[in-house]
Design a protein that fits this description.
This protein has helices at residues 55-66, 84-102, 123-135, 142-148, 201-213, 249-271, 290-301, 304-311, 317-326, 356-363, 390-397, and strands at 3-4, 15-20, 32-47, 68-78, 109-116, 157-165, 168-177, 190-195, 219-220, 230-235, 279-287, 337-340, 343-347, 350-351, 367-373, 379-386. By secondary structure, the protein is of the alpha+beta class.
Amino acid sequence: MYTEIKGGITAPKGFKAAGVQAGIKKSGKHDVAVIYSTVPASVAGVCTTNTMAAAPVAVSRLAFESGIASAIVVNSGCANACTGEQGLSDANEMAQLTADLLSIPKEDVLVASTGIIGVTLPMDKVTAGIKNAVAQLGPDEQDYSTLAIMTTDTFQKHCAYEFELGGVPVRIAGIAKGSGMIHPNMATMLSFITTDAAIAPELLKQALTDAVNVSFNMISVDGDTSTNDMATVLANGLAGNKQIETQDKEYTTFKKILTEVCIFLAKQIVVDGEGATKFLELNVRGAASFADAKKTAMAIAKSPLVKTAFFGEDANWGRILCAVGYSEAAADPTKISLSIGNLTIVKQGLGAPIDEFELKKIMAEHDIRVVVDLGLGQAEATMWTCDFSYEYVKINGEYHT
């Protein structure tokens, strides 16, 4: 249905990007990025539900309301969160400067920030960085823009695909950052998606919302939901397909590929979880409802006891069942089953005979699949998480200092 292509965030027609070193980060690494559509694009976004949402989130939410945008300006190294009126003024200044440099309305600029909370932006550096980034905008600058949104990430997270809508080749691409402070709704993450598909703003919003609900809202690294989370998509229509205006076959295809992009990036965030040594896929099936399946998966995913057990390669299944029990989802201890990898270790609530050597091999793997069958219905949900290691404590103990 789709083909992986090169080019990253600028693979779709009409998009340019740049990332620069503005000196916001003490490390001197890239920290300001601009992503630009050469024509106005349909836009949709989903933001954090944290009531302490950062200033750039407030500015971007207003931009989302119009359904049209042309640019995204991002800085890393400073979250511009819990910074009061000064923070809001600075976020608006970022949008205005970007708009002036690109000769577009300020309302067409999205703003995003990530980094330390409670610190105001060094606007002299931010301003210089934005000017430099706009001057360097091009179709081959995606790697630098991806670098510029990273904080504790250890690798770049990006993908690009090509598919067809009504016989017309269409491209879609995405980048993301996130490593710690990851948990719905949403996670400490930023994700920016571009596509040259033509789609009405209201349908783009519905497609993104549905995609986020099974991707970015189904990951957890440490159970913390940040102040700055944002996932947004720009669709500029330059592919030339007939604009999607109803929920027809073309809409279904578009949403499916958008969801694939979001799931890929979400998984990459979990793989790069701070200090992570294991990537865990949690599938809860046999639930009475999707809500119950999700609650169960989330309880397991955020349990420190479960996560540390996987770090220690200890198949302590009692911790998993304990999390199921306090999830507040409907569960019957006489019907529940549990498998790790390809081994069933709990059947109808009781420990099952297992091959200890085979289980040890599974627990030593990096990617581990856990399946919990509640035995109560047909609903299921899948969530992705990672383990807790010594390195996670070290990273976060030293993050500010």
